[in-house]
């Protein structure tokens, strides 16, 4: 279904097509150029419009354009665009993900440690870190719609939710899930390995970027360009297996000016965590672990401007306990 709208008065537009479906809006300038950007659950192609040129715009563009269009034509335009947005939102909620588990517990890591949190653990991970404590998430899981997941999160009544894995961002529809959860007014944390591009994440989400050290066995998988995309509320984490990992992390903190970014408010925190002992698994090599006391003493001796963290849930419950 294609509808047509009149030429807008305040900016030069040769053609505006409204397409109900995967691409609800197309705008072309008199020069024939076009641009593309996300709006809510939909996608727009446009040019020449000062309102629609804003990235991550969450509102219906028609609310800005309606004053330049009158009467029945404006009403028709609103009806068509509204139907398109509704259809697109329905398509997003019907999208599916491989889900490992959802559980309500206490956040054990990051600057959010200690807060009640609902965890959405997705299935699958392209990495095999030596100390991985969720090997079961590599393959176990079921197919669930985004609507099912959102309803399960809402049923807990908890305003803080973390998307984790595995590597949650390895599933492309996870970005849709993050956006929907943000639109519901929840505080959304994303625990990501840093081996996947984080740029498509909704800007309202808080990314916790786990930079892989040599002791993880996956340091070559770090996507360093992710550091440039980090914002003031995002956090960086290093899980350390030994002194060599600690020295490596110190060097990366200096190389990428992470401490300066924290001081300037362009990064939320730098987290250092001692790896827990992990036995050899079916797909992971295992790790003897690092003494938290040793890590604490190194940080204090070097006056390193970081935050040491523990996995609080492993202190409260047995380290191998699932669903906590």
Identify the notable features of this structure and list them briefly:
324 residues; 14 strands; TIM Barrel; alpha/beta; five-stranded mixed β-sheet
Low-confidence stretches: 1-69
Helices, by number, come to 9
Identify the strand order in the major beta sheet: 8-6-7-9-10-11-12-13-14
Element pattern in H and E: EEEEEHHEEEHEHEEHEHHEHEH
The radius of gyration computed from the alpha-carbon positions, rounded to a whole number of angstroms, is: 23 Å
Number of strands: 14
Secondary-structure class:
alpha/beta
CATH superfamily of the largest domain: Aldolase class I
In this structure, how is the largest beta sheet organized? 9 strands, mixed
Structure, explained:
It is a single chain. This protein is α/β, with parallel strands linked by helices and 324 residues long. It has two domains: 91 residues, no CATH class; 220 residues, Aldolase class I (TIM Barrel, Alpha-Beta Barrel). It contains nine helices and 14 strands. A nine-stranded mixed beta sheet has the order 8-6-7-9-10-11-12-13-14. Strands 1-2-3-5-4 form a five-stranded mixed beta sheet. The longest helix has 24 residues.
Topology:
Elements: E1 2-4, E2 13-19, E3 25-29, E4 35-39, E5 42-46, H1 62-65, H2 71-94, E6 96-106, E7 116-122, E8 142-145, H3 146-156, E9 160-164, H4 174-183, E10 187-192, E11 206-211, H5 226-229, E12 235-240, H6 243-255, H7 258-263, E13 269-274, H8 292-302, E14 307-309, H9 312-316
Parallel strand pairs: 3-5, 7-9, 9-10, 10-11, 11-12, 12-13, 13-14
Antiparallel strand pairs: 1-2, 2-3, 4-5, 6-7, 6-8
């Amino acid at each position: 279904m294609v509808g047509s709208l009149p030429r807008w008065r305040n900016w030069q537009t040769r053609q505006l097509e409204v397409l109900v479906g995967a691409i609800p809006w197309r705008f072309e300038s008199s020069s024939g150029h076009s641009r593309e950007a996300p709006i809510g659950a939909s996608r727009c192609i446009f040019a020449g419009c000062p309102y629609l040129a804003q990235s991550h715009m969450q509102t219906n563009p028609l609310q800005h354009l309606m004053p330049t269009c009158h009467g029945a034509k404006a009403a028709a335009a609103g009806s068509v665009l509204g139907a398109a947005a509704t259809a697109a939102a329905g398509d997003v909620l019907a999208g599916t993900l491989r889900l490992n588990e959802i559980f309500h517990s206490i956040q054990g890591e990051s600057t959010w440690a200690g807060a009640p949190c609902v965890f959405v653990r997705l299935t699958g991970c392209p990495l095999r870190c030596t100390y991985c404590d969720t090997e079961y998430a590599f393959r176990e899981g079921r197919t669930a719609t985004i609507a099912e997941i959102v309803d399960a999160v809402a049923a807990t009544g908890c305003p803080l939710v973390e998307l984790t894995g595995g590597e949650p961002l390895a599933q492309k529809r996870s970005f849709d899930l993050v956006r929907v959860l943000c639109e519901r007014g929840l505080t959304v944390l994303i625990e990501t390995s840093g081996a996947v591009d984080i740029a498509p994440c909704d800007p309202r989400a808080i990314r916790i970027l786990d930079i892989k050290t040599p002791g993880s066995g996956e340091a070559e998988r770090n996507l360093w360009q992710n550091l440039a995309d980090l914002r003031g509320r995002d956090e960086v984490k290093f899980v350390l297996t030994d002194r060599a990992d600690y020295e490596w992390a110190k060097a990366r903190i200096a190389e990428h000016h992470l401490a300066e970014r924290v001081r300037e408010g362009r990064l939320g925190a730098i987290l250092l965590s001692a790896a827990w002992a992990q036995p050899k698994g079916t797909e992971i090599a295992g790790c003897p672990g690092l003494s938290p006391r040793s890590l604490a003493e190194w940080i204090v001796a070097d006056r390193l401007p970081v935050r040491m963290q523990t996995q609080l849930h492993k202190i409260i419950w047995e380290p191998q306990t699932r669903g906590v």
